[in-house]
UniProtKB/TrEMBL annotation:
This is diguanylate cyclase. Keywords: Membrane, Transmembrane, Transmembrane helix. PROSITE patterns: GGDEF. It is an enzyme of class 2 (transferase). It comes from Luteimonas terrae. Pfam families: CHASE3, GGDEF.
Length: 570
């Protein structure tokens, strides 16, 4: 394409110059032809004029002859006057004829001969006139030399005819030349016009083609620029989305709670998909259904608080499931509204999993345009769901480990470390609010004997049973712990000595009634001794309170076991 364009461009200016030159040539040729034609016509007119003048000369000679003869015959003075007037007319007509043909030597010679013959004839007429004037009419008639007159007339006729023939020949030749000039002129004008018009039309066609091509190229260039701008915008959008996701990954590492994780995920989803709404579901411990833990956005498509794996294609298949409004309801999940999504909206379910185990579901719905905003949005949401699943799994693992580090594995109660951390905090809180706090130390009586009698495993079963009993026997704000061995502690915030004693007595009685099932045998019951110390009367630090409660426990043991004693009571 560029090669043919440049070739045309190269020839266009010379072709235009040729067309203009041809038009100029046609103009010049026309002017020249018209001038030549005019000259030729002038010569033709000249020839007619010469012929006319020959006839004028002949008429003048005949006029003089006729008037002279009439005068000789009639002697009428009128004929005499006519004769006298006709004589100089012959000389004048002959002179004008000679002027007219002076450029043609042949005709000039003939005219001179005509003039001589005419003069000679006039001299003869003058001789007869003079004779008539001097000697009378009869003498003049007798003096007429008929032979001479006939000869002179013959010569005049012959010369005149010769001159007319010559002029006729010249006339024919000039007419022929004039016709040739006219034909050539027409040929030059027609040919020149045809060629130059053809060239100009070719040039116009070529220029208009060039213009069309230029317009098409311009349109292509505009299209390419638009495409470039669009792809730049897409790249910008993609890079922004990648940035949002990478920021999400970074912040996710620092999230400490599920609430933080969910909040961060909601913000990120709404940045990636403007106007998105949806829900976060987590698998319940029972593993049989998903429970909604957070909702975000103005729901385009609602989804229930609980759903089973069968309600969702994504959960069933273990991979993302996207439904466009245009897809119809065939592939729509059972947990979303019937008849949704409608055209123009899209629903996306993303399973949350970690190490191959399903831990939840992310359900997002949005306008289809927003989800198609950059072709990688659903892919980015998929990556977000992967990271979200891992983060939740990590959090759950951390929580399990933390719980394990704070709980005693045998009884399920808090351990001594947890007790020490929380007793100080609860004490400070009660101190600040001017409320009491009681600490109970509990110990199974003669546990060594039980161990020795039934075996260590049976002892473990008993401790586990006592742990469960303590767990259900206290308020939710109390902190039951295994202090070590067969010894337990319960921190009871906001409970005074009397309240603590009543609660301890309840526990003691409960233990007393408790038996243990072990290897098909019913063991027990056992008894328990309990020592109590209460803030502020028995101490104002965790260590003192624990020490006081422990000392009171030993006092209870010493006093016979299976009893409750308070440090402040004697
Ligand atoms: N089975 C079992 N036994 C434990 C555990 N921790 C401590 N023991 C035993 O508990 C017994 C505690 O005995 P002692 O401290 O002498 O007290 P006791 O036999 O309960 O007697 P009194 O407290 O005076 O009534 C020891 O035999 C320990 O081995 C445990 O986790 N499991």
């Amino acid at each position: 394409m560029p090669a043919s364009r440049s070739r045309l461009s190269t020839y266009r200016i010379p072709a235009f110059a040729i067309a203009v030159a041809m038009l100029l040539g046609v103009g010049v040729a026309s002017v020249y032809g018209v001038t030549t034609l005019r000259q030729s016509n002038a010569w033709i007119e000249h020839t007619y004029e010469v012929i006319n003048r020959i006839e004028v000369v002949e008429r003048a000679i005949r006029g003089a002859e006729a008037s002279a003869r009439a005068y000789r015959l009639t002697s009428h003075p009128e004929f005499r006057s006519q004769y006298l007037a006709a004589v100089p007319e012959v000389e004048r007509a002959t002179g004008e004829l000679m002027m007219a043909i002076r450029d043609n030597p042949g005709q000039d010679a003939r005219a001179r001969r005509l003039r001589e013959v005419a003069r000679a004839h006039l001299a003869e007429l003058q001789r007869l006139y003079d004779l008539q004037e001097t000697q009378g009419d009869a003498a003049a008639r007798l003096g007429t030399d008929a032979a001479l007159t006939l000869r002179q007339w013959g010569e005049i006729d012959a010369t005149g005819s010769e001159m007319r023939r010559e002029e006729q020949r010249l006339l024919e030749a000039r007419k022929a030349r004039s016709a040739t000039y006219a034909d050539r002129l027409v040929a030059i004008v027609v040919l020149g016009m045809l060629l130059s018009v053809t060239l100009l039309i070719s040039l116009m066609v070529s220029v208009s083609r060039e213009n069309r091509r230029a317009r098409a190229l311009e349109q292509d260039a505009r299209g390419a620029a638009q495409e470039m701008a669009l792809s730049m915008a897409k790249v910008d959008r993609l890079s922004h989305q990648r940035h949002v996701l990478s920021r999400y990954s970074g912040l996710l590492q620092s999230c400490q709670t599920l609430e933080e994780i969910v909040q961060l995920s909601i913000e990120t989803i709404q940045r990636l998909v403007p106007g998105a709404s949806g829900r976060f579901y987590l698998m319940r411990a029972s593993q049989d259904f998903q429970e909604s833990v957070a909702v975000f956005g103005d729901a385009l498509i609602s989804s229930p608080d609980f759903l089973s794996a069968n309600d969702c294609w994504a959960l069933r298949r273990g991979q993302p499931h996207e439904i466009h409004g245009e897809d119809g309801s065939l592939m729509a999940c059972a947990h979303i509204d019937a008849g949704k999504p409608v055209p123009g909206t899209t629903a996306l379910c993303l399973p949350l999993s970690a190490q191959g185990a399903q831990i939840g579901l992310l359900h997002v719905s949005a306008a289809t345009d927003a989800l198609d905003h950059g072709e990688a949005v659903d892919e980015l949401l998929g990556q977000l769901a992967e990271q979200l699943g891992l983060a939740i799994a990590n959090l759950q693992l951390r929580e399990t480990l933390r719980t394990q580090s704070l709980r005693d594995p045998l009884t399920g109660l808090f351990n001594r470390r947890y007790l020490e951390e929380n007793l100080a905090r609860e004490l400070t809180r009660c101190e600040r609010r001017g409320l009491p706090l009681s600490v109970l130390m509990l110990d199974v009586d003669h546990f060594k004997r039980f161990n020795d009698t039934h075996g260590h495993a049976a002892g473990d079963a008993l401790l586990s049973q006592v742990g469960r009993l303590l767990e259900v026997g206290v308020r939710s704000e109390d902190i039951p712990c295994r202090y070590g061995g067969e010894e337990f502690t319960i921190v009871m915030p906001e409970l005074d000595a009397a309240g603590a004693c009543a609660r301890a007595e309840q526990i003691r009685r409960e233990v007393e009634r408790t038996t243990v099932q072990h290897l098909g045998q019913t063991l027990g019951p056992v008894t328990m001794s309990i020592g109590i110390a209460t803030y502020p009367a028995d101490g104002d630090t965790p260590a003192v309170l624990l020490q006081m409660a422990d000392a009171t426990l030993y006092r209870a043991k010493a006093e016979g076991r299976n009893r409750v004693l308070h440090a402040s009571h004697a």
